[in-house]
Amino acid sequence: MRVDIITPFPELVRGFFNESIIKRARDKGLVIIELWDLRKFATGKHKKVDDYPYGGGPGMIMKPEPIFRAVERIREIDENDSCRVILMTPQGERYTQEKAERLAEEAHLVFICGHYRGVDERVIEALVDEEISIGDYILTGGELAAAVVVDSVVRLIPGVLGNFDSAEGDSFSCGKLDYPHYTRPEVYRGMKVPDVLLSGNHAEIDRWREQQAVERTLKKRSDLIQRSKDKE
């Protein structure tokens, strides 16, 4: 997979992609991640990427020219013309694990990080394939949101995690939350690991985990159970 992120502030997330699982995925050649400084595609002495909105009103709007130039440059290096352009915006569709799984099947993702009051509408009309929001709240820019999406997608690429089953069994992947997990020591501050996990009976362990996952989901996120029923 190739991931390109267009932003006027690339240093906000550069370190994020140079650590932990994503760094290992890059080192293995499983994903290519490039950060594009939007200001390098701007013209004029001050390399402005924003301007006042037509019609008046508060805030600034991201100019179309630099974004068009950045996306067109990225498309030039995409030999298969496979890039899917995503705008990170509070007005986008709510992000879910299901969408992460769908994006993980793409060969090339391009993220435009929104800023200020938003981007010129012509960017959305001509360039954007999909708008995504990670929640009903406002961030100062789309960089953190793009990092969240990239992290959730990259970990689903086969070979990125040491054990791919650990991704398939995550919360939300199966329509319910994950079951409780325990590790050593067996007893800590008077709290003991459940006996069933020490029994060696894998059938009983599987039944216990399934029961715990269902109970936890009903208690914390009962809406997931209803969502699964609706899909059926």
Please describe what this structure looks like.
This protein has 232 residues and is an alpha/beta fold. The protein is 38% helix and 18% strand. The strands form 3 sheets. Strands 2-1-6-5-7 form a 5-stranded parallel β-sheet. Helix 9 crosses helix 10. The longest helix has 19 residues, at 202-220. The model has no long low-confidence stretch (mean pLDDT 93).
Number of domains: 2
* Structural class computed from helices and strand pairing: alpha/beta
The multimeric state of the shown protein is single chain
Helical content (DSSP H or I, runs of 4+): 25-40%
In DSSP terms (H or I, runs of 4 or more residues), the helix count works out at: 10
What CATH calls the topology of the largest domain is Alpha/beta knot
Largest sheet geometry = 5 strands, parallel
Range of strand content? 15-25%
Basic shape: elongated
The second-level CATH architecture of the largest domain is 3-Layer(aba) Sandwich
**pLDDT under 50 segments (min length 5)?**
none
Helix and strand element order: EHHEEEHEHEHEHHEEHHH
Which value, in Å, is the CA radius of gyration? Answer: 22 Å
Strand sequence of the main sheet, in spatial order? 2-1-6-5-7
Provide the CATH top-level class of the largest domain.
Alpha Beta
Q: Mean pLDDT, nearest integer?
A: 93
Q: CATH homologous superfamily of the largest domain - what is it? A: SPOUT methyltransferase, trefoil knot domain
Strand tally is 9
Q: For the record, give the distance between the C-alpha atoms at the N and C termini, rounded to a whole number.
A: 32 Å
